[in-house]
Every structure is written in structure tokens, then in C-alpha cells.
Amino acid sequence: MIEQIFTYFTIDTLYMWINLGVLPFWLILIFFPKSYLSRFFVTSIFPFILLSGIYIFILYKSFLIGYDFDGNFNLYLGLSELSRLFEDSLYLMIFWTHFIAINLFVGGWIVKDSQKFSINKILLAIPLIITYLIGPLGIFIYWIIRIFYAKRINLYE
Fold first, then answer.
1. Cα gap 42→104, rounded to integer Å
2. d(CA 107, CA 25)
3. What is the per-residue pLDDT across 17-76, written as a single tens digit (0 to 9) for each?
4. What CA–CA distance (Å, rounded) separates 90 from 92?
5. 103/92 Cα distance (integer angstroms)
6. How far is CA 132 from CA 7, 99, 111, 145, in A?
7. Backbone angles phi, psi at 134, to 5 degrees
8. Where are the domains of the chain?
9. Residue 49: what are its φ and ψ, rounded to 5°?
């Protein structure tokens, strides 16, 4: 049974399932930000337990084939080393899972933070969609919207 799962979940299959699997969470965040579904499934630890499981599975697969984990630290030596790391599909999947998890976490934070200021959910959809696609730009747009609703500028909170 475990061997069947291991052979089914190739890197390409994992990539497809991660991208499809995260869409329901984002749709709940965009269309039902104040619902129980959002609070229980998206802004809780639930999606990150799933993504952590995928992350651990990729690390396990990497370990089995003898991946050079020490070589990952070369990414700090220059852009060419980073480029070399991204040639490896397993490293690319580790990065992609990391990226998806952080963007989802930020989307959940945006929804929870917007509830403090009663930001309109239609207006909130714009930074959420942009956060899904381009994380930092979505946070910035949300911060601009938040300034108008909070009527003050906070650089920390």
C-alpha cells in the first residue's frame, strides 16, 4: 500500500495536486472570508498540516535518492548557484510548497486582520487574489486599503 502511494506521487503529480488542492482554500478566503468554513479550514492550522505533510514527503523522497542537502546552502553564494539549485525538480518542489504555504498563511492573516476593521469583502478580494499570484504585492495593496479603514498608519502591530 505504501509502495503504491510512493510510486503514484511523482514530482509532477505532487505539483498538480498542490496547485489544485490549495484552490479551495483560496476560494473560501475570497468568497466566504467571515464564514465558519474560513475560520476552521483556512485560517487555522489545518492547511499547514497538509502542506507540511507534503513537504516532509518531498524531503523523504529527496533523502532516499541521496539528495545533497548541504548543497542548498550554496544558494547564498550568488545568483548562479541559486539558478543551479532550481534545475533540480525536488528542490523546485520544496520551494514551491514553501511558496504556496506562505502565500496561504498571508491570505489567512489578511482575512483575520480585515475583520478587525470591517473591510468590505469585495474590496478584500483584490489583495487576496494578488496575494495568491504575487504574494508581497498583495500584502502591500492590502496595507494601503487597511490605512483607509483604520484611519492611521501602523508600521507594526
1. 8
2. 10
3. 899 999 999 999 999 988 888 888 888 888 889 888 888 888 888 888 777 777 777 777
4. 5
5. 16
6. 30, 10, 13, 17
7. -140, 85
8. 2-150
9. -65, -45
Three cell numbers, residue 17: 495536486
For the four alpha carbons of 147, 151, 156 and 157, in that order, the dihedral sign comes to negative
Q: What is the distance between the alpha carbons of residues 24 and 45, in angstroms, rounded to a whole number?
A: 15
Grid cell 482554500 is found at 25
Q: Which grid coordinates belong to 104? A: 496561504
Closest CA to 47 of 63, 27, 31: 27
What is the chain's percent helix, strand, coil content, to nearest 5? 80, 0, 20
Give 144: exposed, middle or buried? Use CB within 10 Å, 0-12, 13-18, 19+: exposed
Rounded CA-CA distance 113/73 in Å is 35
Note the Cα 33 to chain centre separation in Å. 17
Is the predicted pLDDT of residue 92 greater than 90, yes or no? Answer: no
